[in-house]
Amino acid sequence: MNKLAVEAEAEAAADVKISALNLSDEKNGAAVDSDGFPSDLERCRPIAIVDEILADSPAERAGLQDGDRLLCFGEVNTAEFATPLAEVPRVVKDFYTNRASSESVDRGGAATSACIRVVVQRKKEHVKIRLTPQTWSGRGLLGCHLTPIYDNR
Question: How many CB atoms lie within 10 A of CB 118?
Answer without folding.
Answer: 26
